[in-house]
Amino acid sequence: MRTTITHKFVETVPDHVEDGIVYVSLTYATAVHRCCCGCGHEVVTPLHPKQWSITFNGEAISLSPSIGNWSFACRSHYWIRAGHIHTARTYTRAEITHLRADDQVLLDQHYAHRPQRPPDDPTESSPKWRGGIKAWFQRLRRP
Ligand SMILES: [Zn+2]
Fold first, then answer.
1. Which of 34, 35, 119, 138 could potentially form a cystine with 41 if both were Cys, beta carbons 3.0 to 4.6 Å apart?
2. 77 C-alpha vs ligand 1 centroid, how far in Å?
3. What is the rounded CA–CA span in Å between residue 108 and residue 113?
4. Per-residue confidence at 111, pLDDT binned at 50, 70, 90?
5. In this structure, what are the phi and psi dihedrals at residue 101, rounded to the nearest 5 degrees?
6. Digit-coded pLDDT (tens) for 60-95
7. Distance 55 CA to ligand 1 centre (A)
């Protein structure tokens, strides 16, 4: 099990995915890396509001939530946090089944969602709020 991982921002995921690198394609909203246990499996983490999110602190990346390779023989489970790998507990088969069901429910909900007009935000058109922003900008301009 490796303890650190670097990253590469790429346009498309390369044919050869190297160990110890998370390839991040913003174009395709996908990250790919090889399982950190060393088993060699490619782990694809789609970047999506209901799947994974990536954060870049200027030096290293984090992926959230954790990476659970339930479908691989290794069943490894870890977090990638600022380029470091933190091993997480291996879930039991029952827990995995449960998690998968949850994921599916979330995905179903997401895709069933019809775009809706957001509810009116009272602060949005409030003159008081706008005045506050204006004052803030004026303060910025002041030498
Ligand atoms: Zn593995």
1. 35
2. 9
3. 8
4. low
5. -60, -45
6. 999 999 999 888 999 899 999 999 999 987 767 777
7. 23
Longest CA–CA separation in the chain, Å: 63
Å from CA of 73 to ligand 1 middle = 7
Cα(74) to centroid(ligand 1), Å: 5
Compute the distance from residue 34 Cα to the ligand 1 centre, in Å: 8
Average pLDDT, the chain: 81
Most confident listed range (17-31, 76-90, 111-125): 17-31
Residue 37's pLDDT is what? Answer: 94
Calculate how far, in angstroms, residue 29's C-alpha sits from the geometric centre of ligand 1.
23
Q: Is the link from the previous residue into 122 a cis peptide, with omega within 30 of 0?
A: no
What residue segments make up the domains of the chain, in order of their start? 6-112
- Per DSSP bridges, beta strands 61-68 and 53-56 are antiparallel
Are 95 and 58 a contacting pair, CB within 8 Å? no
Q: Which residue has the higher pLDDT, 135 or 23?
A: 23
User: b vs e for 12-36, b when ≥16 Cβ sit within 10 Å of the residue's Cβ?
Assistant: ebeeebeeebbbbbeeeebbbbbbb
